[in-house]
Amino acid sequence: MTAPEVPVLPSLLAVFAHPDDESLLAGGVLAQHAAAGARTAVVTATWAPDSRRAPELAAALAVLGAGAPRLLGYNDARNPEAAPGRPRLVDAPLDEVVGRLVAHIRDFKPSLVIGHDAVGQLTGHPDHVRTHQITLLAVEAAGLAHLHPEAGPPWQPAALYAATHPESGVGLLRPLLEGVGKAVLAVPDSYVTTSVDVTPWADVKWRAILAHRGEVARERALPGILARLPEADRTQIIQTEHFTRLTPGPTKGDPAQLTI
Predict the structure, then answer these.
(1) What percent of the chain has pLDDT over 90?
(2) Long-range CB contacts for residues 169-178, cutoff 8 Å, separation at least 24
């Protein structure tokens, strides 16, 4: 007997604002791609390499098979201990941050890039919104040789996807987040172009979330909220990941279009 073929999946670079965003928003897809032998990596915009959350991020990425942390090291808009003495991501010069992300894109050469959505991932955190804007600009700039030439030879990813939450998919999350005083900014269902059932990788995703021990210990942080739930409810929340295909790449219907 021959072993069943594992589908070939494209290389994937995730760009998120904070440690734990990668596990919560795209942990299943990252684990899926890594299990299929695809190259995966994560760029995190805030928190310094010597901060308390950096080792937790490294542990989570090891669980997901996503390599070593790539921390831009900017300060969190709401937590000055993230990177003392460094500018907040929301205050840093836009061209500087875009150029640093372009360097990671050109170095890793991903087929796909995943980032935040335009509303800031349910709670509207300003770092999420800023990271969305930076990622949009960097993915386009990475393919243009005359932009950020110091960042290396141009590389154009085939597609950019935004991790998102449709109104019909918020489900149990709405009362949980509203119960701790957080906003719930879902998007219309029509905004979602790709939904991925990550049930086969839900256990890996959950172990990656648990690696962020500091957030699991916090009552208002989503990892902590999830940790207090019955397993069935938690699985229901984390077993599906939703994305919106942005730009660049083939237009809808093109047979060459890559999918997550």
Answers:
(1) 89
(2) 169/195, 169/240, 169/242, 170/122, 171/236, 171/237, 172/229, 172/233, 172/236, 172/237, 173/122, 173/237, 176/225, 176/229, 177/122, 177/123, 177/222, 177/225
